[in-house]
Amino acid sequence: MKKLLKYGLLLILSAMLVITLAACSSGGSDESASSDSSSEGPTYKIATDTTFAPFEFENDEGKRVGIDIDLLDAIAKNQNFKYELQPLGFDAAVQALEANQVDGVIAGMSITDERKQKFDFSEPYFDSGVVCAVAENSDITDYEGLRGKNVAVKTGTEGSTYADSIKDTYGFTVTTFQDSANMYEDVKAGNSVACFEDYPVIGYAINQGQPLKMIGDVQQGSSYGFAVSKGNETGAKLLEMFNAGLTEVRDSGEYDEIVNTYITK
Ligand code: GLN
User: 160 alpha carbon to ligand 1 midpoint, in Å?
Assistant: First the structure.
């Protein structure tokens, strides 16, 4: 019995050691991370958005976290590649990819036909779509209520494309912002009466206490994918690994664990 107890204690202690070591190694610097310092392969440059919770954001400890970040990390570990994360902002990330300044983008980036002309996407990893949000205390209940008013959007996003496509029909003007946080602020300040944003993101923001509410149906339903430049050899290799790793982290249950860390159903 005593022996058993000793053995059990040893097991617990070694498990704790493993957990501590893992925690130390994952607590690395914000801008870069690697799956295995001993591996020889290249370090891929991956661009992402700045604040797009729950997909990428800085937590209270100043660490960049989120579904995209954790998923990329899990896939990199699974496929044994290294990466350096560049939180450039959405529009800048997409432009950097187009200019081949980075090897890939993971930024809650919707897979669209237009983007497919320039980029190759991974298998979809998250379903999304655009929705309109107004201030919590707003009287606006539909797009007609936007007539003669101003609406906030984020440069280069699907929300922005959608707002542009209906602004003449509903007679509203559009102001663009570089990031989601400033877009929400503009609505809260009353300069804009609404914004167009991805529903999982606005839903998360509302859950976190942002005084906003969604109106109307979800538009432009599209899924997120990891993107690389078309016809780029490095990108093609990276995309292949991303897809292979995505399948494995899905099968292992790690994908669900990551999503559940940020989104409670
Ligand atoms: N999903 C949207 C798009 O691809 C917004 C992405 C983002 O703002 N990070 O346009």
Answer: 9
